[in-house]
Amino acid sequence: MNQTHLLTNSRMKYSRLIGALYLLGFIVYGTGFALISSVIKVPDYLSTISVHKTILALGAFMMMLTLFTDVWRAILFYPILENHSKRTALIYLSAQIISVVFMNIGVLCLLMIVPLGQHTLATGEANPDWANAIGSLLTQANSMAYQIGQMSLAIGSGILWLLAYRVRLVPKFFAVWGIAGYVIYLVGTGAEVFGIHIGLFLSIPGGLFEIVLPFWLFIRGFNKEAYGTNE
What we know:
Layout (H helix, E strand, L loop, with lengths): L2 H5 L3 H30 L8 H16 L1 H17 L3 H26 L1 H11 L5 H39 L4 H22 L5 H4 L1 H16 L4 H4 L4
Helix pairs in contact: 2-3, 2-4, 2-10, 3-5, 3-6, 4-5, 5-7, 6-7, 7-8, 8-10
């Protein structure tokens, strides 16, 4: 059965679901990161980790929800993109899967801080250097895994919005914004991997794009002709 025919009456539903998943992913990961940061950014956090382990676990759980939001968004995008380029659809889906795998590896590293802190208390040592070194290594491993995952996301998303520009899936302004935002973000994540801390600043264009785009999708949705319907 023709895929375009299957999607004929679902343009706004798909548009709104994809828009909602953009916002939901932004919210859950950001909230989770804030919760974890409130635990591990304080001095001598290993000595108090047993008290705050629930907050850390909740933050980790929220960060891991991107496994649902990001991959499901790519799954919803797949039939839309496949109408124009199956290769792009596969690249975007693969990039999102790679991204969440690395991000969740990073979260697992953060969760290892809990048993590390408990073991430190059990030894009776006051803030031992070896424990601090391992704790620092775990947080740096999370940061590195996150940046590698985001590099994959930036590459896949840049290719997605390049296709969207060609087929006019959204207004050209949005597509150009998306392409530029993710290219800039890719530079930022690459710089972070090599210890040049400019990633947060360079994430602003892409971050704003992921906040503004959903509202367009909620109200107007994807372009009818490019989506595959003349409703």
